[in-house]
Amino acid sequence: MGFKIVAGRAKTGKSTYIYDEINKEISNGSKNNLLLVVPEQMTYQSEYEVIDRISSSGIMSLEVLSFKRLGYKVFEEVGGLKVQEINRYGKIMLLKKIFEENKDKLKLFKKASRQEGFLREFDSLISELKQNMVSEEFLEQILKHKVTENDNHLLNSKLEDILTIYSEINKHTKDRFFDEEDKINLFISAVAKSKFVRNSKIWIDGFESFNGQRLKLIKELVKYAVSVTVTLNIDPACINSLQSIDDWEAFKTVHETFKSLTDEDVSFEIEALNEHAFAEEIKIVEKSMFSLKDEKFSILTDKVQLRSSLNPYTETEKTALEIICLVRDQGYRWKDIGVAVGDMDTYSINVKKVFTQFEIPFFLDMKRDIMGNPLTKFILSLFDMFIYNFKHDSVFEFLKTGFSVLNYDEVSKLENFALQYGIEGEKWFRAFRFKCDGIEYFNSLREKFTSGMKEAKTQFKKLDNAMDITLFLFDFLDKFNVQEKIERQVNVFKKSNLYELSSENAQVWNYVVEILEQIILTGGNMEINPSDYRKMIEAGFREVKISIIPPTLDKVTVGETDKISVKSYKALFILGANEGKLDSRSSESGLLLNDEREILAASGMKAINNADYYMYREKHMLYKLFSSAGERLYLSYAMGTSEGKSLQPSMYTERLKSLFTGIKEKSDLSDTWELDNVSSVGGTVDTLVSKLRDFSESGEITDVWKNVYAWYEENDENTINIIKLGLLYENRAENINKENLEKIYQMPVTMSVSRLESFAACPFKFFMENIIKPQPRIVQKVEFYDIGNIYHQAVERFTNEIISSNIDIDTMDEEMARKISCVCTENILAEGEMDYIALDANERNKYMKEKIKRLVNRAADTIIKQLQRGSFRPKFTELSIGDKDGNIFVEPVEIKIDNDLSIYFQGRIDRVDTFEKEQKTYVNIIDYKSSYKDIDLSDAVQGLQLQLLVYMSAIMKNGEKLFASKPEIGGAYYFLIDDPLVDGDVVLESTPQDLIFNKLSLKGYVLEDSEIITGMDNEIGDKKASDIIPVTFNKDGSTSKSSKTLTDKEFKALLSKTDSVAKDIAGKILAGNIGINPYRKESGDKVPCSFCDFRGVCQFDPSSDKNSYRKIKKLKKDEIMLEIMKEGEPDEI
């Protein structure tokens, strides 16, 4: 019953020592069972090492096992597994059930089980307690007698909840099934009965620490096996006194393990190994990196390198270049190289992209979750369909998994149809009766999809226990031939050499079946509704992490630091050596905070792990990581994220610079050796493009890149052509030629003024909106512009009702106005029933319907009050400019571009009010808006806001026949349809209604004429400031500077100017200008790109020197009018 501990630092040959002993046993014809026990995650790697190191004749004499697999061998021999096993997925789902059943008993964790990751953390805590043999009774005693002395109420409440759940777990599992920890206890008990163990020589390799259960198991194996040998990665010099070495912190965890293994009266032998198999520079890193002494070495070397990069992407690129150099110039194999990353979430994306581009074969050693897998989505969306009555998202999540009866093309078309017509819920089970093309086709798709679904839905509602729900789910998986479809897909992936996808999908089916079997095991007869069942299986799915075995051996291995540290590589790259990434510096773990763990440890729970344990464990892991390099070590960090946020280097980068005084930190900005950037065909392209771009600006390029360019010209003409196109590309849209213009614009050309404004914002936007006219997917939902249209129509109809009925505005009261407006709104909604069907789709939209009525009522009330305060009266609504379909219209505005070409502007004016004075008809034009808008003269003279002014010009030029006398300018305004809020806490003289009335005042410009002003607001003289129009009087009776007024001459000059601007824009449109040329105001960040639907088409990039905004100034009223008046007398208006 010999017990040997093989102690040695990294690379001292501990595993080699074991393999030599095994080979010796085989050579001597040993009759014992030879067992090599390694961590679960190392079994695959160890089996390959066995093939390399053990003689082929004796390889069958050795078994490579994990503790778990060794346990199964013992159980096969002696029995003991009398109940069924519950795995971690089953435990998570059991915990979900227990938390739901006991939530009323809990103090802190009532709702915690609903939080993602909580059940995993709780399961880990229970496992930790069991692994360290902390029983329910012991925990109860701790709670009663020890922790209360610390008066820590939070910890007391937490422990009470833990004890409640711990007790319930034991009740649910007792004599029914066992978990991994229970199995180890059974294994410990079975060792003494096992002849297999008594005839075994056991070597335990690759572990740094053992929990309480494992320690007890090893001691049992020592007691009954022929011999047990354990390797420990520790300096033999610190066995008896830890702090006798300078880097003792790196070995504290292992030293504790050594003490635990030898703390009883057990005789043992120590084999101390001291010979290192490192390059000299790596030996310095291994020996001194974690030393507390300030050691310095003046050695000059390229075997240890340090690099800083701008961001993780460029860091990954530089790593790829170094790897290629090692393989190409130093004769390395891909498998000789390991890449450890400090942040897998960030670097995995970069590695996939960069290594693929650089043609580096790699294996990403990371576990994949299955939440995004089609099978998982199929199951969860199936439940969602039945639970939420076939809502759109759940239906198409289900159909898009690839397991439904519809193919991809059919699903895509059906989804567009369903979005357009609002198909969800019970509508799926009724024939579609819409008047549209292809209705029979869509009905056939509906029937294929819903076949058997209605009956299944009825059955689903009756399900009330876990067994029946699970069987229901299995029936569906069988009905849709899911397993067969997965097998077919796995074969497709294999044939396409997509081995990782093949392996992942092959495993998912087994995991899902395992989870469903665990549900039946842990609570087959459990009463549960389908909604809670779905939550339970989702919790199980979230726990699944799939490991992939590398399909070929000769690949660069990329993994997290703890994964890479278990194997040796000739060259090791450590990426992401940033603070908080390489060294996490965590002080807390799981549900118990570090302070709480300290209290529990002081109360007798010595085995509970605290922050010091995790700190020293991490330090040992990093020691192993830095020691994994055999010949070369590359450490790199990013100075910032890809988004520009700064990052700090890890303390280990400074430690490396401190050790090697001659080391020069490389940087992306300081690289000068050109050949370093010449790698693979794909990997060199980006750098070549950068050098050629520099050449186009400076005229300078080195011979290296001339030769690289020549190589591509000779060997890869396609790439060179793409590069040339890219370098010459200026992201410019060429003018439309005359031939195509004639096809686009039919003579005579008519156009709305809003199109001119669109062109002024960006010619390319105009081109896309009005010529290309791409159509978005039609979705039945209430859009903002739908609501705006309803507002417009209802308010216009209200005004038209007043005009056509000759209602005396002066005698109208609020009640009468609201009655008329309500009827108008109801009629608009009824007439547009199909257009506005989405307003009845859900409760939110029904609320919007009521809001529409409320806002229209408010608008009607405001309009009447504004009119009652003045002399202007509504004359026309929806007055057409250019459209001669009706009896009342204004002739279109003709703008002559040249002698042979004219353009006509047309549109509709929401409302025209008039006021008769001295044989003149003064005209106001009013445009309704559902969001705030005011006339900005600076925008107007630069083409961005022409509409109201061009409309006014049209009436002045062509509208005389509509009025009793020649029309004169009165004003141009926007009217806001809104129901604004006011601050009810503010004490003011005005009432809330007065404040609202003021907020809804007209925005625009009024004629500088006292009679016109009082004609708009006859109370302004008393108040000095109008709450209808933007006018304030000074004490002397003149209008204030802030008033928005224009004299008749100024108004006419402004209209002449905007007509000229419209002409200029029209000329550019008819010249075929479609340039990618958006504006940007100098005074702010406003750009049309912010709300443009075509940003992805034009690819305008303001950071590129090939693209730039068209800057426009913010002009003041005085300078605008001064400039306009300088231009001379306006045209006849």
Automatic annotation (TrEMBL):
Q: Could you give a single Gene Ontology term from the biological process aspect? A: DNA recombination
SUPFAM superfamilies per UniProt: P-loop containing nucleoside triphosphate hydrolases
Which stretches make up the ATP-dependent helicase/deoxyribonuclease subunit B N-terminal domain?
Answer: 6-272
Question: Which molecular-function annotations from GO does this UniProt entry contain?
Answer: ATP binding; DNA binding; exonuclease activity; helicase activity
Task: Using the record's annotation, list all stretches that form the PD-(D/E)XK endonuclease-like domain.
Answer: 750-1099
Concerning Gene3D superfamilies, the annotation shows:
3.90.320.10, 6.10.140.1030, P-loop containing nucleotide triphosphate hydrolases (3.40.50.300)
Any matching Pfam family: ADDB_N
Which InterPro entries does this one have? ADDB_N, P-loop_NTPase, PDDEXK-like_dom_sf, PDDEXK_AddAB-type
Could you tell me what this protein is called?
Answer: DNA helicase/exodeoxyribonuclease V subunit B
Traced from the root, the source organism's taxonomic lineage reads: Bacteria, Bacillati, Bacillota, Tissierellia, Sedimentibacter
